Amino acid sequence: MKKKGWLIYNKEDSSRNSVFIERLLKEAELLGTGLEFMVKESFTIGVKQHALLLLYNGKQVELPQFAIMRNIDELFTAQLELMGCRVYNSSYISRIANDKARTHQLLASKGFPMADTYFLGPEFDFFCPGDFPVPCVVKEVQGRGGKEVFRVNSHEELQDVFTQSRGKKVILQKLEKPGKDVRVFVVGKKIVAAVLRESHHDFRSNHSLGGSSGMYDLSPSQVKMVNGIIDLFDFGMAGIDFIFNEDGNFLFNEIEDVVGSRTLSLNSDINIVRILLEYVLKDLSGERADE
């Protein structure tokens, strides 16, 4: 039976990602899958007459078998899941990956190496900036694409940042080797490829901020580390980012839930869109999608 799914974006992101959207819709058609583009803002969710409610443009809509979620909204994703729709990525991944503090908390508890990281929030009053080495990095926990990331060069600046950040959730991190990181693209339980991103003018290496990129060959120890992280999640598609310490070793940096594939497309002919859709179809049919 033909599988039916939704591809969900909000309006703003859909206008910036029209090429990726067209690729997904085209590949789904080639695979004989019904994939319909849906605008997040057109949904209404809630509870009515003691049952979960889902409307689209104010009307009841038949739930598909799956949804590819390209929007960050744990509550909305959970609503679809509780109503019986398989969502890629899940509300659990949305909850963890889109909060940098939660991500570091979980992975540190499992022993993965990472930069020293403090979690700061509106109810934490006792923090001594002099106890933390500078320069360092301050990140809002829900920032994406290198935005809401700031380099702090002195303890005086750090005190100002701490004062200004009250009321917000941020993480404070030791600045390791700046301007260089590796993004590992993952579909399901498989590593698809890795891309090295570098910048010679910014401590952030994001391609969207002017960084360069190229394919990267993971060492056996790096593959082992990535697979250890993969084992903790049921990804649809995600990016796992690593920075380097002064000895050149991997340190976990973050998980990108709604990951873009621009750097992968620029540096290879890997069709990650088809790989994702083939994984989804196998997963829905109960096959071992990692084989």
Largest sheet: 5 strands, antiparallel
**C-alpha termini separation:** 22 Å
Number of domains: 3
Here the CATH topology of the largest domain equals: D-amino Acid Aminotransferase, Chain A, domain 1
Structural class: alpha+beta
Multimerization state: single chain
Number of helices: 9
What does the average pLDDT come to?
Answer: 90
What do these coordinates show?
By secondary structure, this protein is of the alpha+beta class. It has 3 domains: 4-88, Rossmann fold (3-Layer(aba) Sandwich), CATH 3.40.50.20; 116-174, Dna Ligase, domain 1; 177-285, ATP-grasp fold, B domain (D-amino Acid Aminotransferase, Chain A, domain 1, 2-Layer Sandwich). It contains 9 helices and 16 strands. A 5-stranded antiparallel sheet has the order 14-13-12-15-16. A 4-stranded parallel sheet has the order 2-1-6-7, sandwiched between helices. α3 (74-82) runs antiparallel to α4. It is globular.
